[in-house]
Amino acid sequence: MKKRVVFAHILDGIGSLALISWIFFPIAPGPLNFREPSQFILFSPYKMFLQVRSLIAVPQVFSQLLLFLYLVPLLGLYRLISFFFLKKLDSFATPGGTFLSVMRILATLCAFSAYVLPMLLFADSPAWFTNVPLEGIISFAVITVIHIISVIALTKTWNNKNPVYREYREFKNSDSDVMNRKNNRAIAAVEVLFRIRTKLFFAFIGIISLILVVLSGLLLSNYRVTILKAVGDTARGQVEQTSSNYRINLGDNIAMFEYMNRQDQMNKTAEFAFESLFLYTNLKSEVYLDELDGVVPDFQTEYSLLFPGEQYPPIAPLKGETVRTYAQSFARERNVITTYSPEAKTYGYVSPIVKIDTVRDGDKRIRRERLLGFSIMYFNEDVILRPYFLTRVSVFVFTIISLYIAIILTYLVGNYIVNPLLFLRMNVRKISDVLSSMISGQSRISSSSIVYNDCVTSRDELKSLSSEINDMVTVIRGIVPYISASTLKQAEKGIASTTRKKLTFLFTDIRGFTTLCEGMQPEEMVGILNSYLDLETEIILNNHGDVDKFVGDEMMAFFEGPLQELNACQAAMEIRHAMMEEKERREKDGLPIVSIGIGINGGDVVFGSVGARDRMDFTSIGDTVNLAARLEGANKAYGSKAIITDAVYQKIKSKFLCRELDFIAVKGKNEPVQIYELLQELPKAQPKLIEIKNLFERGLVAYREKNWAKATTAFRKNVDLYEDAPSAVFLERIEHFRHAPPPKSWDGVFRMLVK
After folding, report:
1. SS3 (DSSP) at 692
2. How far is the CA of 443 from the CAs of 14, 175, 433, 434, 440, in angstroms?
3. N or C: which end of the chain has fewer CB within 10 A?
């Protein structure tokens, strides 16, 4: 038995044990009784049927549905027993088979009802969710994982019965473009959004879900407002009645205790029970509603249901500032005051206790409103919004269930629509890969390799499209034998277009090639040239470059990417080494020798198609290209081998030994550039090269300062010891300046007058 199959059986066995043990776990809270919703019991699946039936408020049909919970452990037991009869049961015991996948889906759906039903019936406040046991959360996660794995296994089983789908899976797993997109999470995420299944989901499900969410949100919002208004109206009436009762029975403690007891008894049976009721009073101080600017005293708690039968219980008084705020608000609005505390999550309803006093003002008697106290009733927000919260949970649960069903249906319908398109893409891509391999030179051009497999079996527009593609492939198969590989390669670039790119260019030119070819036949001369160019091209391609064009014995190549400067310089050094070996070989054979000049520069260029409508060339244009070409020619003026610009030097100075060569203004440009000679890779640099570099740069500094004697000493030493050609060039310049000194404005720039 293969390891993969054994692993699947082990996982299936663990899942079976999980299904059996799940029946005994506490999974969800429920009310001990509906009059004390803060007291919870924990439901366990094996006795949930009896527990729910004992709650008289639960419809009997709901409790009967819970009998299906016993299917969950039965499936687990069947799976464990089936391990002893794997061969006899065959497909009925295969972990990813249709039978077990369907049974697991049914069992997990039954298990989900054990979580959903208590939530629909009892989740009327956030406290319900805080009382969900950890075992319930873990078991829900396990059941969800088993369910998802079962659905995936079932869909894979159905799909794999189709041989074309199996072929498509193999193609997809071997598709490098698909693998690259998978590795790039950002691209993969964006790509998912544009898939047909995604579009179907948003088109058919998204709009319906949006309507459902919007309507549910509006209805729930209105329902919330309605509940708060109904409770608020009742509470305002109660606190106004309490204030009136206190005013009528002022000083009659027995009547007030009887009234408070009645309020307590009614509150115990109320659907929206208040949390507390307080009467704050101050009969010693005279506080009038038309005179609140002075000092307002604190009001003591005279009665409270927290201490029934006790007058002036030990409860903190109502502070004077709060009294002033409530009194001023009542004086303006003449309504019961409503407060809300986000921290305590309570609504407060405040009704002042006002007594009309008649007082003398000179010869007049006026009526004034004296504030005796406040009746304040507090409601817990969770209690008020219990029906709203329960309704909101129900809406959320049914929305999730609807979306899940919609996703499954969308996937099934999408399979019927999308799979033929995927198969179509697979066959088109196979043909594209064949053509690409021909273009890249990886395979021989052959029309017999271009075969289209029409696997669309439906009789609709997709079948028509597949037939049209087959006709197009037939035409291509007839044209391919008459098209050269180079033409195909240029055709791969598509329509004429240009873009700006940062590239590094390498120009080479073979010195002495004309002399080498004197007396040769044209065929022999072309053969020698091709051998040199082939050598250079191979090195450039091995260093991630590409050859743009050949012009006689000159070659133009370019490099792109983050390491383009390093790759270009590495290619230049390898070309120099290869040409040096060729030079030594020809010297031994007594044949004419050649040398090579290299110029390298990097920067932005216009990269794309250039030419006439019917004759295009794909190349690069810009000052960056021109300067690289000029630097290749500048090697003649300095006696150097490879010249690079400062832009390239800054990128490669940690890898290559270079020496500053000069400030130069090439023909056609007034702006000077700083140039360097590429000497050697740093790990391979010999002390001799380092000494040449140091002497030359020391002489260059003196040269720019017009210190001819010091510069001559440095350059002369380089020439005498190492026969350094660039140093000899500067000695000639110094000799010239001694006889014809440069002007005071001389900037040390060498201006080339030839290409």
Report:
1. helix
2. 51, 18, 11, 8, 8
3. N
